[in-house]
Amino acid sequence: MSTIVHTFEQEALVAGLSWSVLRTDGDEQKSHQDGKKIRRQAALLGASAYCQQVANQALYLGLYSAGLLQKNKNRKKLYSLALAFLAAFEANQQKTLNAILLMPLEQDETRKVLVVIEAGQVVHDKIERVIDAQQVIEKYRQQVGMNFHIFTADALLPQSKQVAWKDLQQHCQKWSQLKPLPKNKTAISIVVVLAIVALASFFYYQLVWQKQKQQTLLLQQNQLNNHTPKYLSELEKNLNQLAWTNQQLTLLTNAIEQEKSYLNGWALTTIVCSFANQECQYSYQRIGGKTQDMVDWALTQHKQYSIESSQQDVLVLSQNIATNTAYLQLKPPQIPPLRSSQIELHSVFQQLLNAQLQVAIGQPLVWPHQGIDLNKVDAKAKVLQTPIEIKLPWALKQSTLSLIPAYIAWRELRLQVSHDAHNSQQLTLTLKGHSYVQAH
To answer: What ranges in 273-379 are assigned the alpha helix state H?
Structure first.
């Protein structure tokens, strides 16, 4: 929720806006759709006002969502604190740089108002606990090649400059003022047309209305008592993109085998590949190398990187998963009955346990279930989703996968690399996914 953090005689400064990209320069021809986009985003967040910022060849949208105790009772003009700070900073610097604003929250001493401007763009606009605000500031301070100017009310932070609320008030300009949401002119026109049509059809509906009403009520009652069609529709939609196919999983493991265990004075410790995020993350432990060497290497390999702020000796790289084959898809007829699948799965898991592999099976639940009253779904239509996790030596991956039935879908792959004093390695693979079987 957005919060009014300081008030003046006629104006009030607001923090905690929700920021997102509204339009890039390449979408100028679609500027007439801005109002529709703003209303759609505002409806999702329950927002009542907005402001806009142009930065980095894009138009950004800031939405104001007032909490129950934050109503603007005195009808003051509301201004975005982040945009007022940006205007004040640019006015003094004569150019757009990187800046952080940390101000007290008058009604709560345990929290602070934190605004971060990166390359002229608002990237952080929130009310944070004091300890969390310090961590965020430290995070941006440690970014490679970034020089953030810090402004506070008391100038107690190292290398910070003092700023007062009145300094920010002077830069409350029209472009930083929050505006009411744009009206839906098309909707208004449609309402007028519908009213005319309804009036012209009034006498016709008077003749047939009673019979149609009875039929409609009966149909609605039947629909309310039967969620099976809705459930089957959601089931088929969710089954269309379930997880990796065996071909994709093989391609993925082949690519992982090409990764180097030691690189530029860093040792590979963990690889985690997620189907949901469509990316793999590589964690490295420093054993004498430098962060900059790994960053330079990552850029040449087209990998994104992030440095854990709490541990400077740990580096995490991420890379999108590129596959050219379709995702695993199951059709309802391919989902086996409960009893026969239990026998088959027990046999498979027994083979894995005999080979000293670790197998964990979770609690089966009816799936999908969001937005559906499962009590109103035919029991014969329901599908059970059961979490499954298998931990095995990397060398046994292919023989293990060959045993897995087609109705088990893998959504996460984790490789743990253990290094000992003799530079020998132990590779442990963990597969996480679900089985899908009929509930009867």
So the answer is: 291-300, 338-354
- For helices 185-200 and 202-224, angle between their N-to-C axes, nearest 10 degrees: 110
Biggest CA–CA distance in the chain, Å, is 92
Residue 376 pLDDT > 80, yes or no?
Answer: yes
- Model confidence at 115, pLDDT cuts 50, 70, 90, reads very high
pLDDT surpassing 90 at residue 433: yes
Q: How far apart are CA 297 and CA 303, in angstroms?
A: 9
HSE-CB of 179 using CA atoms within 13 angstroms: 14
CB-count exposure of residue 50 (10 Å: 0-12, 13-18, 19+): buried
As a dihedral over the C-alpha atoms of residue 40, residue 46, residue 51, residue 55, rounded to 10 degrees, the angle is: -60
Q: What is the pLDDT of residue 429?
A: 95
In 287-424, beta strands by DSSP E: 304-307, 314-320, 358-361, 365-367, 383-393, 408-419
Side-chain-side CA neighbours of residue 127 (13 Å)? 19
- Compute the distance between CA of residue 393 and CA of residue 40 in angstroms, rounded to an integer: 49
Q: What pLDDT sits at residue 309?
A: 47
Which spans in 240-290 are helix H?
246-257
8 Å CB contact between 243 and 328: yes
pLDDT digits (tens, 9 = 90+) for 32-88: 778 889 999 898 888 989 999 988 888 999 999 887 556 666 678 999 999 999 888
- Please count the helices (runs of H) and the strands (runs of E) in the chain: 11, 22
Closest by alpha carbon to 239, among 334, 321, 159? 334
The model's pTM = 0.49
376: its two tokens: 């109103």
Domains of the chain (ranges, CATH numbers): 3-180 (no CATH), 187-224 (no CATH), 235-239+330-438 (3.30.70), 246-320 (3.30.1360)
| Neighbour-count burial for 159-178, b at 16+ CB within 10 Å, e otherwise | ebeebebeebbebbeeebbb
In sequence order, which residues have a C-beta less than 8 Å from that of residue 163 and are 6 or more positions away? 88, 101, 103, 151, 152, 153
